[in-house]
Amino acid sequence: MRKLFILISFILFGACAFAQPDTISINLDNVAYPYPVKFLHLKQEGQDIKMAYMDVKPQNPNGRSVILFHGKNFGGYYWTSVIKTLTGKGFRVVVPDQVGFGKSDKAYIHYSFHSLARNNNILLDSLGIDKITILGHSMGGMLATRFTLMYPNRVEKLLLEDPIGLEDYRTFVPYQSAEDDYKTELKTTYESVKSYYMNSYFTKWDTSYDYLVKIAANVNKSTNFSRYAKVAAMTFEMIYEQPVCYEFSLIKVPTVLFIGKEDKTIVGKALLSDEEKTKHGQYKVLGPETAKKIPDCKLIEFDNCGHIPHIEVKEEFLKALIGNI
């Protein structure tokens, strides 16, 4: 029965990947995820908030668990190959959509990496998971770092995949208020999202990436898009105002840093001059520099790869992941 459900989910996800509806709800209600989605009920700032997650258990458990933290413009839907690979090796895999993202509620609250980390700690408690390995991608890398600093005794290993926040954006990106960012978010179109993804995330575009654009862009036709845009602005502010790069030396667990050498991601890049863009976001430089700051860190670099190795160089990344987890 479980195999049948997974097969049906895979078929639906595959269909979803290539034929996203024109209008997507801000909680991705009409986006199929590869495994069953459950909800953790939280109380935050006097509000009842639902946090979505997948809890995927292997057929032959090895006794270890991994939690996957997604990037800012993504949700649990883009981890499919990673989940399948890890569960195939016996790992239990927990895949949350952080509050404000994916299928989780888009709450009007103060967003902080501390509060998001706390939410994930509550989630692990609810699942009875004591020790965890974390894989954080992009913004998820900042969150994974904060979680590790807050709960070092819970983390067995920290895995960072092209994390943002390797530099302090406040020192070179002009400040914009949440209201300014909100106005920018309201201008989101399919064309603007695809252009950003093509120029920022991948070294070479493949049509198989189109589903990522459709999910990220087609929320703009939802009647609740203004809420989505407001929360997106609030989480941008969180990234800008809450750097983790000054605390890498405090990490006390074994760490692996996976870096696409052609990644040039800068949060707030559109606000910079062309000259400034060349000075920052150079992951082929930031990766080695960051690895030196973390006491017990192994650096793994991928040639001809941008911001999302687990998609752009999938097989190479998965091999490196399994070999270093």
TrEMBL record:
Lineage, broadest ranks: Bacteria, Pseudomonadati, Bacteroidota, Sphingobacteriia, Sphingobacteriales
AB hydrolase-1 domain segment(s): 66-312
Alphabetical keyword list: Hydrolase, Signal
The name this protein goes by in its record: Alpha/beta hydrolase
UniProt keyword 4Fe-4S, yes or no: no
Gene3D superfamilies noted in UniProt: alpha/beta hydrolase (3.40.50.1820)
Signal peptide: 1-19
GO MF, one example: hydrolase activity
PROSITE patterns: PROKAR_LIPOPROTEIN
Originating species: Mucilaginibacter jinjuensis
InterPro entries with a match to the protein in the record: AB_hydrolase_1 (IPR000073), AB_hydrolase_fold (IPR029058), AB_hydrolase_sf (IPR050266), Epox_hydrolase-like (IPR000639)
